[in-house]
Amino acid sequence: MKHLRLYQIGLLVVLVAFWWAMTKPGLLPNLMFDNDRQAAFFFGEPLTVASRIWNWFVITGDIYRHLLVTLTETLLAFGIGSVLGLAGGLWLALSPLASAILEPYVKAANSMPRIILAPIFAVWFGLGIASKVALGVTLVFFIVFFNVYQGVKEVSPVVLANARMLGASPRQLLRHVYLPSATSWVFSSLHTSVGLAFVGAVVGEYLGSSQGVGYLILQAEGSFDINTVMAGILVLTAFALVLDALVGRIERRLMKWQPRSGETEKL
Amino acid sequence: MTDASAFPAPDPAPSSAPALSLDGVSCTFISRDSPGQRYTAVADVRLAVAAGEFVSVVGPTGCGKSTLLNVGAGLLAPSTGTVAVFGRPLEGINKRAGYMFQSESLMPWRTALGNVMAGLEFRGLPLPEARAQAGEWLKRVGLGGFGDRYPHQLSGGMRKRTSLAQTLALDPDIILMDEPFSALDIQTRQLMENEVLELWQRKRKAVLFITHDLDEAIAMSDRVLVMSAGPAARMIGEFMIDIPRPRDVAEIKTSARFLELHAAIWAVLREEVLEGYAQQLRAA
Q1: In A130-162, which positions are buried (b, 16+ CB within 10 angstroms) versus exposed (e)?
Q2: Is residue A260 a part of any domain in this protein?
Q3: What's the rounded mean pLDDT across residues B262-271?
Q4: Between B73, B104, B150, which is nearest A158 by CB?
Q5: Which residue is closest to B149 within chain A, CA to CA?
Q6: How many domains does chain A have?
Q7: Which one of A156, A158, A162 makes the best mutation probe of the B interface by having the most chain B beta carbons within 10 Å?
Q8: Closest-CA residue to B136 (of B155, B160, B159, B120)
C-alpha cells in the first residue's frame, strides 16, 4: 500500500483525539461519571501526559538515568539468558542421556509462572539491577533453550554427513554446523526473547526498586498520578518498539543466508 | 576451464590393492519402534573399484544402492563383511573419499565460496589459501562470479556444481557419487555429466557412481554393476564398457556399441525393475 505510514499515523491521531475529547473536563456531557473531572482522573489527559514526557526528556532530563537502568537490565538479561540458553540447548540436544534425565525438570521449570520468582530474587539479589536481570534471564533462557534444542535436532542429516565427509572434527561440527543452525532458530525467537527481557526488567522494577522506568511508574501510582503512569507506559512502549526495530535490523543483517519467500534479486 | 598445467599428471598408484573394496557386505536395519522388525537392505555384496576406475552401480529404486555408498564412505558400519581402502580396513569415516550426495548437502549459512572452502578449512589450511583454492575450483566448475551467493540464491544445477567443487577441492582419491544429477533437467544433466567426465579424465580418481539411469551409467563408466531388487539386494551382473574415451555423453548414446551394451544390461535389469515395482505396489 502506498500511503501505509500516512494511514498508520492518521489512526494514532484519531485515537489521541478520542482520548483528549473523552477526558477534557466540561467538553462532553457526563454519561459515565458524576463529576466531570473523574474521566481525567482515571484515564489521564493527553496534553498533561505529553507535557510530562516533555518535562522528562527536555526540561529536567531525569528520565535518561531511569531509561539507562532499564536498558542495562534488559540487555544484561537478554545476553546472559541467550548464552545460557544456547549452552544448555546445545548440551541437552547433543547428549541424549542428559536430555532424558533432565526432561521432566525442564518441563516443570518452563511451565512454572516464573514472574512469581521476582520476590525471591529481590530477597536474594537485593533491590538493585541484579534481581531484575535474574528475572529477565529466567524468562529469556527457556525461549532460547527450546529454540536451540529444536535447531540442533533439525540439522539436516545430509548436511551433517557432508560436513563429516569433508573432514570436520566433532568440535568443528559444533562450530560450523550445529551452532549456525541453532543460531538461526535463536534469531527467529529474538523478538520474543528481547521482549521478555524487557518485561522482566520492568516487572522487577515495579515490584521493588530505587530506579528505572518501572520505578517511576510505581512512584506515580502511589500518589494516584495517572498522568505520570500513562507517560511512563508510553515511554516504555516507544522504547520497546525501538528495541524491536533494532532486533529486526540485526536479524536481517545476520540472517541474509535464509531464503525469504517471494524474494527475487535484481541482478 | 583452466589450462591442464594446473593439474598434476595422472599417476595411478602402482599398488595392487583396489582403491575401495567391499567384501561380503550385508546391512540389516532394525526398526526403531519395534526392535523385532528387521530389514536387510543389501546382502553379501562384493565390489571393488580400482584406482582410477569409474564404476557405476545401477538397480531398481529402493534396492540399497545408497546404503552401499554410505558403507564405502564409512558413514554406516556394515552388519557383516569388511570394507578396505587401498588395502587397509576402513575404520570410521573414509578420509580418502569425497562424497557427493543426492539431496541438498550445502551448508545454507555459507556462501558458495564458503561451502567449497569448508573442507580445506576443516583440514587446517590457512584461510586465505583455502579461499584462493576454493575460488579456483568454483571457476573450474563455471561458477567464478557466484562465490558470494548463498545456496538459496543459486539454481539447482549451480548448487550441484558447488557440491562438485566442494568434493573435488579436497582432491580425494576416491569419489563417491549418489545419483548426483537425478534432480536436474536433462540439458543441465548432460552438461554436468560431460564436465564430470572431463575433470575425471584429467585426474583419474577412483569413482563409485550410483544411478538408476542406465544411459548415464553406460555413458560415463568403465564398468557397470547391476543390483537386484531389495530387500537383500545382491550384485547380479557386471559389464565392462569398452567404448573408447574421451566420450561425449550425448553423442555416444546413438553409437552401435552403446545400444548393444544397453540391450544386454537392460535384459538383466528389466526383471529386477519389474520385481521392485511389483513390491512397491504390494506394499502400498
Answers
A1: bbbbbbbbbbbbbbbbbbbbbbbeebbeebbbb
A2: no
A3: 88
A4: B104
A5: A257
A6: 1
A7: A162
A8: B120
Residue range B76-134, pLDDT digits in tens: 999 999 999 998 898 888 989 999 998 889 999 999 999 999 999 999 999 999 999 99
Task: For residues B7-29, give the mean pLDDT.
Answer: 71
The fraction of chain A above a pLDDT of 70, given in percent, is 96
The reply to whether A267 falls in a domain is no
E runs forming strands in A144-239: none
Q: Which residue has the cell 560436513?
A: A163
Residue B109 has its nearest CB partner, among A162, A169, A257, at: A257
Q: Give the closest-approach CA distance of A180 to chain B in angstroms.
A: 7
Give the closest of A158, A169, A180 to B109, CB-based. A180
Identify whether A161 is part of a domain. yes
Contact yes or no for B107 and A177 at CB 8 A: yes
Residue A131 and residue A121 in contact, taking contact as beta carbons nearer than 8 Å: yes
Confidence of residue A208 (pLDDT cuts 50, 70, 90): confident
To the nearest whole Å, the CA of A264 is away from the closest chain B CA by 9
In a domain, A17, yes or no: no
ipTM: 0.84
The residue among A207 and A31 whose pLDDT is bigger is A207
Report, as an integer, the average pLDDT of B157-165.
90
- Residue B2: pLDDT band with limits 50, 70, 90: very low
HSE-up of residue B114 (Cα within 13 Å, Cβ side): 13
Interface test with A, best of B105, B115, B150, B168 (most A CBs within 10 A): B105
Least Cα separation, residue A267 to chain B (angstroms):
11
Whether residue A256 and residue B73 make contact (CB cut-off 8 A), yes or no, is no
What residues of chain A lie within 8 A of the CB of B99, using their CB?
Answer: 161-162, 165
Domains of chain B with CATH codes: 4-96+174-283 (3.40.50.300), 110-171 (no CATH)
Inter-chain CB proximity A259 and B152 less than 8 Å: yes
Task: Tell me which of A186-190, A220-224, B154-158, B225-229 is least confident.
Answer: A186-190
Cross-strand partners of B23: B82
Domain containing residue A152: 42-254
Q: Which residue has 544390461 as its cell numbers?
A: B265
Q: What pLDDT is recorded for position A192?
A: 86
User: Which band of pLDDT confidence, cut at 50, 70 and 90, is reported for residue B7?
Assistant: very low
Say how far apart CA B154 and CA A123 lie, in whole Å.
56
How far out from the chain centre does Cα B226 lie? 15
CATH number, domain with residue A218: 1.10.3720.10
Strand B88-89 to B80-85 pairing: antiparallel
Given the DSSP bridges, would you call strands B174-178 and B97-100 parallel, antiparallel or unpaired?
parallel
